[in-house]
Amino acid sequence: MERLNINQLNKWIDSQKSDVERTIIRNRKDEKIVRMRERDKDEQIILDKLCIKRWKEAEKEGKIKYITDRKWYYDFD
User: Which of 30, 45, 71, 75 is 20 to 30 Å from 16 by CA-CA measure?
Assistant: First the structure.
């Protein structure tokens, strides 16, 4: 068995990376990719702010119709 040092291993990994990524993309199903790691706190805060901003814009544009306190209709484009 051939012995490799870490530099040789890293070079080999880099040389094979594009082929492996291409194969993975080709064989990927059209299924939704499930996120495995938890979002960090900053990312959660930013996404919450973006969602709230979009919701308020939709309210201003009249895309959201409140039927009752717990029921509403969102008109998607």
Answer: 30
Residue 26 CA, distance from chain mean position: 19
CA distance 13 to 18: 9
Q: Quickly list DSSP for 1-57.
A: -----HHHHHHHHHHHHHHHHHHHHHH--SSPPPP-SPPPHHHHHHHHHHHHHHHHH
Beta bridge partners of 72: 66
What is d(CA 48, CA 21) in angstroms, rounded to the nearest whole number? 32
pLDDT tens for 22-36 read 888 888 777 777 778
CB 8 within 8 A of CB 14: no
